[in-house]
Automatic annotation (TrEMBL):
EC code: 3.1.11.6
Stated name of the protein: Exodeoxyribonuclease 7 large subunit
Domain of life where this protein originates: Bacteria
Organism of derivation: Microbacterium arthrosphaerae
Coiled coil: none
NCBIfam families xref list: xseA (TIGR00237)
InterPro entries per UniProt: Exonuc_VII_L, Exonuc_VII_lsu_C, OB-fold_nuc-bd_dom
Species classification: Bacteria, Bacillati, Actinomycetota, Actinomycetes, Micrococcales
Length: 437
């Protein structure tokens, strides 16, 4: 806010009826009236100054206006009054929240000790200046990434509790409640009231935002207002509010009812709704639409399942209609004769194989018998062997008086050698040994 300097330099002689500090003592105090007159005389020496600020109070009493003007940076405020004669010369659209410049002159009322500034001129600050400041802030926040879609949090499909920040008893609150409850009757709200314009707008909105963001059951937060001109929407482009929205962990929806000149809150919020009604429609699904969608999906599922079952039944009937499955025993009957032929052929081959092997076995048995020493003995031959079992192959092995064992076709008997018989002794070499048959 622009400061002003008194027209009279301190230290100069005050008005004649004024009181100096040294003119009053505990023994001789001055009067309240004289003190107030001194203050009024001093204040009236100040000149008029032009000051810039935001209107935060505008109370009209009769034709006069009593209000307050707030600094654009700090929370400093001053009181002002506009007499009816001056009010007629000022713009007719002045109101709370407007950014203005005013020509003011200090005044002091000695009767009740009130101090205020009288307004002789007041007008809106050029919209171009405001837009320039907003564009600089917009560029700064965009460079910091606050507008980046990647950082925006998704809105839940069906929030259980919706946090609502709006003006008390406002049309915006009624619109959000009415449209949301029409779409989903079970929706629940937790509402925090805040000023939606003026000097209380930003701090109250930030406080409400922090309270709702800290509530664990709140799924989404809506900041709603029923529109307004660019001057009244300046609070929703305040850097403090924008950074608080960006830092919130709960998704935030901007529902400031406007279309053309939207505040920066629209760019920082996770979702922009054109109006409070639009916010309600985008936050909760329409129960009728969801039921219709469920019915449609169930119908599609039933149709798909019916088609699949019908197709599988048709395939099964097609398989069952084949001869081999229609009369499975026919396959066995048609192959039974072949099985009988194969079985008979197998039995015949086994019989022939057995006969062949029986003949071969008989032949081998006969051959074995022919080669067996028992067969030779059966024909009348004998085998002589000594007591130690050595077969006598030479007559010299059995000298006279040598006991021998003679084995014949049926058993063995003991004998004693009379010695070797000389050839030509009149006994045949085969004497005693029967000739073979």
């Amino acid at each position: 806010m622009t400061t002003f300097q008194p027209a009279v330099v301190p230290g100069e002689a005050p008005p004649p009826d004024s009181v100096r500090p040294r003119d009053s003592t505990a023994q001789a105090p001055t009067s309240v009236a004289r003190l107030n007159d001194t203050i009024r005389g001093f204040v009236q020496t100040w000149g008029s100054v032009w000051v810039e600020g935001e209107i935060t109070g505008w109370n009209q009493r009769g034709g006069n206006v009593f209000g307050r003007l707030k600094d654009l940076v700090t929370d400093a405020t001053v009181s002002f009054r506009i007499w009816s004669s001056t009010r007629d010369r000022l713009p007719g659209d002045l109101k709370v929240g407007d950014h203005v410049i005013a020509c003011v002159k200090a005044d002091y009322f000695p009767k009740n000790g009130d101090f205020s500034f009288g307004v002789s001129a007041m007008r809106h600050v050029g919209l171009g200046d405001q837009l320039e400041r907003l564009e600089r802030l917009r560029a700064q926040l965009r460079a910091e990434g606050l507008f980046d879609p990647a950082r925006k949090k998704p809105i839940p499909f069906l929030p259980h509790v919706i946090g609502l920040i709006t003006g008390e008893n406002s049309d915006a609150e009624k619109d959000v409640h009415r449209n949301a409850e029409l779409r989903w009757p079970q929706v629940s709200f937790r509402t925090k009231y805040a000023a939606v314009q003026g000097d209380r707008c930003v701090p109250e909105t930030i406080a409400a935002l922090k309270a709702l963001d800290a509530a664990p059951d709140v799924d989404v937060i809506v900041i709603a207002r029923g529109g307004g001109d660019p001057q009244t929407l300046l609070g929703f482009s305040d850097e403090r509010l924008l950074r608080a929205v960006a830092a919130a962990s709960t998704p935030v929806v901007s529902a400031i009812g406007h279309e053309n000149d939207h505040p920066l809150l629209d760019d920082v919020a996770d979702l922009r709704a054109s109006t409070p009604t639009d916010a309600a429609k985008r936050l909760v699904p329409d129960v009728a639409e969801q039921r219709a969608l469920v019915a449609q999906l169930r119908a599609r599922l039933t149709s798909r399942l019916t088609q699949r079952v019908t197709h599988d039944i048709a395939q099964l009937e097609q398989l069952r209609s084949r001869p081999v499955l229609r009369a499975p025993e026919s396959l066995v009957d048609s192959r039974s004769h072949e099985i009988e032929l194969l079985a008979a052929r197998g039995r015949d081959r086994i019989d022939r194989s057995l006969q062949t092997h029986e003949r071969r076995t008989a032949e081998l048995r006969a051959t074995l018998r022919a080669l067996s020493p028992a067969s030779t003995l059966a024909r009348g031959y004998a085998i002589a062997h000594l007591a130690d079992g050595v077969i006598v192959r030479d007559a010299a092995q059995a000298p006279a008086s040598t006991p021998v064992v003679v084995t014949v076709g049926r058993g063995s008997f003991a004998a004693r050698s009379d010695g070797e018989i000389a050839e030509g002794s009149g006994a045949s070499a085969d004497e005693g040994v029967p000739a073979p048959n």
